[in-house]
């Protein structure tokens, strides 16, 4: 006997039942109102502006946004991103002060533009990430505000 079955012979498996295939359970969409979407979008936009504001206003704007929203549990994302931006801008201020002090031994003149460039690049990256609703953590940042 070979391992193949003759198509003319009846098969040993029972015939399939004439039941319709089970349909998957209906998907229920999460009930979200337009105001919930708008608040999420507003928080993302404000978080983005908070990160970008560090380029012009240093710690001022992140500090104001964090102080306004720190006790509001509905603004947890915005609160977290404002703290992150504030910690980063404090770290950048410290780096600029150290670079200025080191200008007297010439290396600070090289460090200051690098600190400024790092501030520019990382603020833009943070703004893009937060505009997409992602959490962003700056590298090499002192976590002074928790």
From TrEMBL:
It is found in: Membrane. Residues 1-40 are annotated as: Disordered. Pfam families: MamF_MmsF. Residues 12-28 have a biased composition (Pro residues). It is a multi-pass membrane protein. InterPro entries: MamF_MmsF. The keyword Transmembrane helix applies. It comes from the Bacteria. Residues 1-11 have a biased composition (Polar residues). The chain crosses the membrane at residues 46-69, 90-112. Keywords: Membrane, Transmembrane, Transmembrane helix. This is Membrane protein.
């Amino acid at each position: 006997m070979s391992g193949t079955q003759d198509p003319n012979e009846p098969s040993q498996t029972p015939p399939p039942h004439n039941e319709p295939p089970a349909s998957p359970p209906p998907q229920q969409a999460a009930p979200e109102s337009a105001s919930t979407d708008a608040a999420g979008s507003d928080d993302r936009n404000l978080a983005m502006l908070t990160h970008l504001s560090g380029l012009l206003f240093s710690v001022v704007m992140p500090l104001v946004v964090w102080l306004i929203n720190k006790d509001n549990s509905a603004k947890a994302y915005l609160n977290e991103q404002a703290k992150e931006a504030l910690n980063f801008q404090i770290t950048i201020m410290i780096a600029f002060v150290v670079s200025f002090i080191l200008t007297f031994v010439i290396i600070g003149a090289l460090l200051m533009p690098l600190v400024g460039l790092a501030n520019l690049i990382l603020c833009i990256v943070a703004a893009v990430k937060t505009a997409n609703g992602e959490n962003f953590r700056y590298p090499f940042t002192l976590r002074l505000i928790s």
